[in-house]
Amino acid sequence: MFKHIIIGQYLPGNSFLHRMDARAKLIAVLLMIMVIFLADTWRGYGAVTVGTVGVWMISGVPLRYILKGMYPILILIVGTFLLHAFLTQEGEVIATVGAFSVYSGGIEQGLFIGLRLFFLVLVTSLLTLTTSPIDLTDGLEQMLQPLKRFGVPAHEVALMMSIAIRFIPTLFQEAEKIIKAQTARGAKFNSGSMKQRTQAMISLLVPLFIRAFKRAEDLALAMEARGYNGGEKRTKLRALTWRRKDTIACLIVAVSAVLLFFFQR
Amino acid sequence: MTAVSFNHVSFRYEEESDWVLEDVNAEIEEGEWVSIIGPNGSGKSTLSRMCNGLLSPVEGEVFIEGKPVRPGEELALLRQKVGMVFQNPDHQFVAPTVKDDIAFGMENAGVPRNEMVERIEKAAMQTGIEKILDAEPHRLSGGQKQRVAIAGTLVLHPTLLILDEATSMLDPQGKREVMNILKDLHRRDRITILHVTHDLREAAIGTRIWLMRFGNIAIDLDSNTMLDQMNQFDTNDIPLPYEFHLLQELRRRHCKEEAGLVKRYIRDGIAL
Ligand SMILES: Nc1ncnc2c1ncn2[C@@H]1O[C@H](COP(=O)(O)OP(=O)(O)OP(=O)(O)O)[C@@H](O)[C@H]1O
Ligand SMILES: [Mg+2]
């Protein structure tokens, strides 16, 4: 059932984006998110479209992967569009539906917000599609490093994320085993009434949690036995390498961001 | 030199509760391979965890290579010297890939990156996992995971390796893999081994056997003598595997030559 799970939605590949340093990608994505929030004219959105589609083209990610990531937020996009379309009262009336009048300004606002959501998801999907979760964790840890002074637990957060990445497949495998065992004992996961299914769910979750706690205890002991001592004086096997092309890529995004700001007026 | 020395060690998990270890006195010499057997709850795990400071004796003291085990800064160094592998292969795999997991101990110890890469290569060779260095844990067999765990201790150049029922969750093939690696490490790299197990076949491979009962080392024999005095074990709740019975029977019938053969067969771990 869970044989071929992939964590996150990383799609291994060898494109320019795949080979970029995770930190560079994080910085670029942050910049692009800012740009997406700043855009508020048609010219602005036109430029954002050209930019993000360009980034998508060099990512080598097939369109269907992008669309798959879009499905869950489709309702949100359509919903916010309708909300703005009906409730904003600016510009001239285009149509009247019952008690509601649709204004041109509303349509425009709705489209802007919908596009904004769309681009946000597109940009962040491109990040997670082209960066392995491990690299993403490392990148995040190193970028949070300067914030340590202000009490941000960079190492601990990264360790937690990496342990989560490591144990998610294990949890799924275990859930599969428990489901089989409980089905053999008469639990109904896929058939039966709502009540029976809820009971079946409980018979899955309780053992799953108990074993997770036992595992956490064992894992803590094993980590201690291997000399884990917190983040102090630790070295890392994984090294991110920042190359010139990473600097260039970030600069291009930054310059485009500034240009867009003037261009859209 | 003495690798481990237990000096009047007593332990209980909570005050007022029963003693789990009571006045244990024993020594392990460098290069020995001690197997601990004994019923559930006899204190095997507790005793082994005294060797790297995961637990500290309530009374008495533990010495590793002559130095007392005490909480504090030096524990980190001690834990490099004393490698420990636990029972459940899945519960000691920390990192998302094999390579990262082997590196975990070295990262804690602050080993520079270039050196890590070299040490990983060597340890992977010693444990035969060169081909799976980039694999994720959920795609490995139990035996492979335990070999990764052993590799993760080897990169810290331990002088003592403790295995707490590290083979008990493995299939016969996995057991054999792990035991063969232990043999190599003992013979070639002269690593002292402390192996907690419920399997008399595995225990017979080492140089010495401790039988623990009620928080004490009830029987302490070198493995050769153990095979000559098996009647001592028979009375305890340790079931004898088939070839051990055979050995006893041959002895009873004074078939010296055959008994010698069976004994060698047991000592070499061919039955595993
Ligand atoms: N964390 C703990 N807290 C309290 N009591 C414990 C704890 N761990 C073990 N004990 C108790 O200490 C005794 C010895 O336990 P230990 O785990 O050392 O036995 P063992 O010989 O390793 O047994 P097994 O063969 O089951 O692994 C047992 O009676 C057990 O109930
Ligand atoms: Mg135990």
TrEMBL record, chain A:
Forms a stable energy-coupling factor (ECF) transporter complex composed of 2 membrane-embedded substrate-binding proteins (S component), 2 ATP-binding proteins (A component) and 2 transmembrane proteins (T component). The chain crosses the membrane at residues 22-39, 70-87, 117-134, 154-172, 246-263. This is Energy-coupling factor transporter transmembrane protein EcfT. Pfam families: CbiQ. Signal peptide: none annotated. It is a multi-pass membrane protein. GO terms for cellular component: plasma membrane. HAMAP family: EcfT (MF_01461).
From TrEMBL, chain B:
GO terms for molecular function: ATP binding; ATP hydrolysis activity; ATPase-coupled transmembrane transporter activity; cobalt ion transmembrane transporter activity. Residues 4-239 form the ABC transporter domain. Keywords: ATP-binding, Cell membrane, Membrane, Nucleotide-binding, Translocase, Transport. The keyword Nucleotide-binding applies. The keyword Transport applies. It comes from Alteribacillus iranensis. This is Energy-coupling factor transport system ATP-binding protein. It comes from the Bacteria.
